[in-house]
Amino acid sequence: MHVVIIGAGEVGTSIAESLDDSNDVVVIDIDEERAEQLKYELDVMTLAGDGTSMSTLQRAGIEETDMLIASTDDDETNLIACATAKTVADPFTIARTKSVEYLRTWERTEEAFGVDFMVCTDLLSAENIVRVVGLPAAIDVDPFAGGQVQMAEFEIVADSPVAGQTIAEADRFESLTFAGLFREGEMILPRGSTEIRPGDRAVVIGSPESVQGFATDIAPEATPGEATEIVIIGGSEIGYHTARLLEDRGMKPRLIEQDHERARYLAEELPNTLVMEHDATDTEFLAREHVDEADILVAALDSDEKNLLVSVLAKRLGTKRVVSVVDSGEYVTLFEEIGVDVAINPRQVTAEEITRFTHEGVAENISVLENDQAEVLELELTEGCALVGRPIREIAADIGGDLVFGAVTRDREYITPRGDTVLKPGDHVIVFVETEFVGELTAMA
């Protein structure tokens, strides 16, 4: 497939990296130095130029392009690039936007702006935050098989009841599979005798009830159920949509916004959210409003520096759990090191969603973990594919890479996979697999 990506920032680079192995990829960026640098980082062709320019698109081979992905930081540039491409060819176009208004306009016809698929960064980020809020001990949560299966990633702290236990000792749930451990940047496929250590990140796949039960096991004080006391700092678009989505789930968050006009607007738009107009860096105010008693605080201000400050203040006050929006991928590690429990990077969230969509037809759903070290794939098996009619143990041996079958659903029934489980046509299979073996697995599906 010939793919043109416009924008070589964090989003465009991540997408290009995920596609360059099996596709003919061209990346366009207005910055000549960045375009030249990317040429040596990835096995892709790069062009320096304006992605909205007809001449630049023609140089990229737009007439033969199967897919165009406009992923710059500017909404209008992305929309114009898609519209321009449609005037001379008919590639499948994907546009990244921050504005939910553009998304709502596109959803009315799904033909607006010459865009075939639109990804809204702010809304996706809010949805990610709300999923984490629903499972307070987790640092990442994704649904699979229509919600019948959940993948969740947890950081094991020193005082967790499962720290020091083996996988066999910690695995007390019938419909749960320990898919992987990440330890000091390395991926480990867990066995029954593998010890769970403080600092590990454990990935589990199972029914929502079992994942919730495991969350309660590893952090009983954090997971009595869904968090009820939630404070959102910042009425940005991400903050607003987080509050709106929480309201949709019957919750009543508190939101702190300093700007008078924005606070008034939010109060009118969010009937079940208590909107307070105040400076969220005022420690006395935060203490007076008992922010330390919140189950979760979400830092959604308009800059990484402000979110970092608010997160530190909240942790010092004693807030149980802090989730922060981190716009720059380079800062994610810093936020985690100072004690932020979950760092949501909108650019990475967007890149994952676009990557997930580009793999449709190969996989029903995809979740990318730990800087693309591993992926969780949902595959729907068809009659005649190489995975059907064979036990899981045999398939794993054939691939020879690091993978774990996490769950199978068959006729809407959940099946806990075992080595002797034989796969059938129509099965939805959720697999944890090291990224370099994804192509080999999907070729069999």
Could you describe the 3D structure shown?
The protein is of the alpha/beta class and 445 residues long. It has helices at 10-19, 32-41, 54-59, 75-88, 100-109, 121-134, 167-170, 208-218, 237-248, 260-269, 283-288, 304-317, 332-337, 346-358, 392-399, 438-444, and strands spanning 2-6, 24-29, 45-48, 67-70, 92-97, 117-120, 138-144, 149-155, 176-183, 186-188, 201-206, 230-233, 254-257, 274-277, 296-299, 322-325, 342-344, 365-369, 374-380, 403-410, 413-415, 428-434. A six-stranded parallel beta sheet has the order 3-2-1-4-5-6, with helices on both faces. It has a six-stranded parallel beta sheet with strand order 14-13-12-15-16-17, with helices on both faces. A five-stranded antiparallel beta sheet has the order 7-8-11-9-10. Helix 1 (10-19) runs parallel beside helix 14 (346-358), helix 6 (121-134) crosses helix 9 and helix 6 crosses helix 14. The chain is globular, with a radius of gyration of 22 Å. The mean pLDDT is 92.
